[in-house]
Design brief:
Number of domains: 4
Helix content: 40-55%
Largest sheet: 3 strands, antiparallel
Mean pLDDT: 77
Strand content: 5-15%
Order of helices and strands: HEEEHHEEEHHHHEHEHHHHHH
Number of strands: 8
Length: 363
């Protein structure tokens, strides 16, 4: 057993970065990075690696990723301990001994029920792997089966976390169906793997540039000011609108800062192209008819229900990333559902409906 301890064969991650000089002395732990020996077991050794603890000097050679790993472990353990205390508040808390055993060994310090009944105390009682202090209590009471404490802690911690996520939805007006998004699930899993010290992306600020947006020189000064603020070495590309003033601003910025590239916005380029295409007479007339048809369908709830039954809940309206793309996407969807729409407008259900009797001007 002593040989395993000296090799750091423990569940506590602190043993990956510390070792015992003397296998028989489990209170003196030596740091693998600086060689400093601390007294107080693995808990004090972790404080030495993380730093900013009153009772342990900070290790100057410890990598930052190791500090983050140990800090996350200690914070999660503290949270579980708080939840555990709240769940079983009828009994005084068990004091976990974290010198060597970490989560495998416990030291029972107080076994007194708050109603006055007392239980015999013991010291340094070793439990089987996966057992905890409640197992000792239930075995003493003759209970054969114990509820999984970890499940209770996870349930409580999840409830608190979901409240924070829900508050984010409420405060920012995000639709609740976003909770079904696969991207959101991937995001939450990534945050969980990173730990509690993740810094969110920075959004610097947005400004109202309407007073000088038409002047290329002023826009260049504005962009150059932000490049200086972020750091020229951190900026590779500047993307802006395709107006002549933005083109001039981009050219002036490239002359001043040689390694920065100005690029016109691709979405705006597509928007301008679609705008010009939509001015062609035949296409303009087709778009107007499609928009009128879709407007009529979505303007009458009964017709909308008929359409959804015919298209098997396929919508005709799809918002695009650009203003003019929306019209073309709507036209595309109407074309894809051409057969279903024809079947709907020639069906008996449509013929006997009151909407089929409306004047043609309303269509």
């Amino acid at each position: 057993m002593a040989e395993d301890l000296s090799k750091g064969n423990r569940r506590d991650p602190g043993w990956k970065y510390n070792h015992l000089q003397n296998p028989n002395d489990t209170t003196r732990v030596t740091c693998n990075f600086c060689g400093k020996t601390t007294r107080g077991g693995i808990n004090r050794a972790k404080q030495h690696l993380i730093g900013n603890f009153r009772n342990a000097a900070k290790c100057l050679n410890c990598p930052q990723e190791v500090r983050d790993e140990l800090r996350n472990y200690m914070e999660e353990k503290k949270l579980r301990k708080e939840v555990y205390t709240n769940e079983f508040s009828g009994f005084d808390e068990f004091d976990y001994q974290d010198d060597v055993g970490g989560e495998d060994e416990v030291q029972e310090t107080i076994h007194k029920k708050r109603g006055g009944e007392s239980f015999p105390s013991s010291t340094s009682k070793k439990l089987a792997k996966g057992k905890g202090p409640m197992d000792v209590f239930l075995q003493r009471q003759g209970t054969l089966r114990q509820a999984n404490i970890k499940d209770s802690c996870d349930k409580e911690a999840r409830a608190m976390t979901i409240q924070k996520v829900a508050r984010f939805f409420y405060d920012n007006g995000i639709p609740f169906n976003v909770a079904r998004s696969k991207v959101l699930r991937k995001q939450l899993r990534s945050v969980g793997r990173y730990g509690p010290n993740l810094k969110p992306p920075m959004f610097m600020e947005s400004i109202d540039a309407s007073s000088f947006v038409k002047t290329g020189e002023k826009l260049c000064e504005l962009l150059d000011r932000y490049v200086e603020r972020v750091g020229e070495q951190n900026v590779v590309q500047v993307i802006s609108d395709n107006g002549s003033n933005f083109v001039l601003a981009g050219q002036l910025l490239q002359r001043k800062r040689r390694h920065i590239y100005w690029t016109p916005c691709a979405a705006h380029c597509i928007d301008l192209m679609l705008e010009d295409i939509g001015k062609i007479p035949n296409i303009k007339k087709t778009l107007q008819r499609a928009i009128a048809l879709v407007g009529f369908i979505y303007g009458h709830s009964g017709v909308l229900n008929m359409m959804r039954d015919s298209t098997k809940n396929k919508e005709l309206v799809k918002c695009g990333i650009t203003r003019f793309a929306t019209s073309f996407l709507t036209l595309q969807r109407s074309h894809c559902q051409k057969t279903n729409l024809r079947a709907m407008f020639t069906s008996d259900k449509w013929m006997i409906s009151r909407w089929s009797k409306l004047p043609k001007e309303n269509l």
